[in-house]
Design a protein that fits this description.
It is a single chain. The protein is mainly alpha-helical and 447 residues long. The protein folds into 2 domains: 107 residues; 339 residues, no CATH class. It contains 19 helices and no strands. Helix 3 runs antiparallel to helix 5 and helix 16 runs antiparallel to helix 18. Belongs to the complex I subunit 4 family. It catalyses: a ubiquinone + NADH + 5 H(+)(in) = a ubiquinol + NAD(+) + 4 H(+)(out). Keywords: Electron transport, Membrane, Mitochondrion, NAD, Respiratory chain, Translocase, Transmembrane, Transmembrane helix, Transport, Ubiquinone. One of its GO terms (cellular component) is mitochondrial membrane. Pfam families: Oxidored_q5_N, Proton_antipo_M.
Length: 447
């Protein structure tokens, strides 16, 4: 793992050179190819050291981080054309990727905390520095304070565990080693991750951050940053498994009820970006509920949904940005009649929205089937809530597609120029892995 971290540091230095916009993206994909060549079988850990390592849980999340970071550069072509602090922009993305790789590959709880909180800084700089909306400072404060309020209790909980066990290595700490097992420790250790997911009631920072962020900020927020919360819960539940069995029912019910309420809120959104952002809260609420059951199918389904949602939601934000660059508005009332203006782009809207509502040949379908099975096995009472959430998830996806694609356009057709080959490639690189991973995961389950 250390060689990939050193490569990440070298990319940060490379960003200060001139005319390296596409070179940085090529280096990212070269890193990803090298990482894919590393052998991994089952749950075996490779590159084991005292600080950094990698197992099957962090393996695909690191691949997703490198993949989305490369697509962020491709989607930010306008920054390249305007040369708006281009070196700082590339350095910011490279530093963010370095923080994400370190977060997913560390075995030490304190190091994990440092990298987990350190990844907040580049995202905040993306919103404040390259966000085009006037309320980006307020969105930055939302993101900062929601995260920082719960980060100090997490640090105190990590120090308490170190005082009890004299070790911060994740695989060397278990709930039986702790002398105090109470509700406070459970919520202190999970609080920062619940905000990062985000869970219902602490989710208000996410739509605000998405609305004010540039396309690269929205892609990394939806693609990777929300997955940090799920990854942290997977690691911490190993330590708090005994407490979780007695307290998870409250969080599961809150996540499912919150998912139902937020899915209804999606029908009242007039901003396309806000609708996609709220749909992320619905999917992450379902993911959290399945993860807290601590069953094999629940954890596996949550992991598949994290990977699938990272690709699908990032692609949807790209589509919304394509409309915004042409019509200078994200309002649903103004973005109408696209089917007659740009049929090829309408096809991509259909494919990504069908993946968003877990249609066949999508990784989200396999993940949600496993999540629904685990939650129904956990409690039959959840069957009604699961049915409603699934129904409304399909409903707001179809609502967005029908409202944007059909009808009569209220804008001048001269404002709508043809789609570029770069944009087709960007959407293709979101959609193809989303469906190939479904076939690979299905083959793995059947064999």
């Amino acid at each position: 793992m250390m060689k990939f971290i050193f490569m990440g540091l070298s990319v940060v230095i490379l960003c200060f050179m001139k005319n390296v916009f596409w070179m940085v993206q090529n280096v990212y994909y070269f890193m990803m190819i090298l990482f894919m060549l590393m052998p991994i079988k089952g749950y075996l850990i490779f590159s084991l050291s005292y600080i950094f390592s990698c197992d099957i849980i962090s393996y695909f999340l690191i691949l997703l981080s490198i993949w989305i970071s490369g697509l962020m550069i491709m989607a930010s072509f306008k920054i390249y054309l305007k040369n708006f602090h281009l070196s700082l922009f590339l350095m910011n993305i490279s530093f963010l990727l370095l923080m994400l790789i370190c977060t997913f590959s560390t075995l030490n709880l304190f190091m994990f905390y440092l990298f987990f909180e350190g990844s907040l800084v580049p995202v905040l700089l993306l919103i404040l520095g390259w966000g085009a909306q006037p309320e980006r400072i307020q969105a930055g404060f939302y993101l900062l304070f929601y995260t920082m309020i719960v980060s100090l209790p997490l640090l105190m909980g990590i120090f308490f565990i170190y005082g009890e066990v004299n070790s911060l290595m994740i695989y060397m700490v278990s709930w039986g080693d702790l002398s105090i097992n109470n509700i406070l420790l459970y919520f202190i250790m999970l609080g920062a991750f619940l905000v990062k997911i985000p869970m219902f009631l602490v989710h208000l920072w996410l739509p605000k951050a998405h609305l004010e962020a540039p396309i690269s900020g929205s892609m990394i927020l939806a693609g990777i940053m929300l997955k940090l919360g799920g990854y942290g819960i997977i690691r911490v539940l190993k330590i708090l498994s005994h407490l979780n069995m007695g307290l998870n029912s409250y969080l599961i019910m809150l996540s499912m009820l919150g998912g139902l309420l937020v899915s209804l809120m999606c029908f009242f959104q007039m901003d396309m970006k806000a609708l996609v952002a709220y749909s992320s809260v619905v999917h992450m609420g379902l993911m959290l509920a399945g993860l807290l059951t601590q069953t094999c199918w629940g954890v596996s389904g949550a992991y598949l949904v994290m990977i699938g949602h990272g690709l699908c939601s990032s692609g949807l934000f790209c589509l919304v940005n394509f409309n915004y660059e042409r019509l200078f508005s994200r309002n649903l009332m103004l973005n109408k009649g696209m089917l007659s203006m740009m049929p090829s782009l309408s096809l991509w809207w259909f494919m990504l929205l069908s993946s968003n509502m877990a249609a066949p040949l999508s990784l989200n379908l396999l993940g949600e089937i496993m999540l629904i099975s685990s939650l129904v096995m956990w409690s039959v009472v959840l069957m009604l809530l699961l049915g409603l959430v699934s129904f409304f998830s399909a409903g707001y996806s179809l609502y967005l597609f029908a409202f944007v694609q059909q009808g009569v356009s209220s804008m001048n057709l001269n404002n709508y120029y043809l789609i570029e080959s770069r944009e087709f490639l960007l959407l293709l690189l979101h959609w193809v892995p989303l469906n190939l991973l479904f076939l690979y995961s299905l083959y793995t389950l059947l064999t």
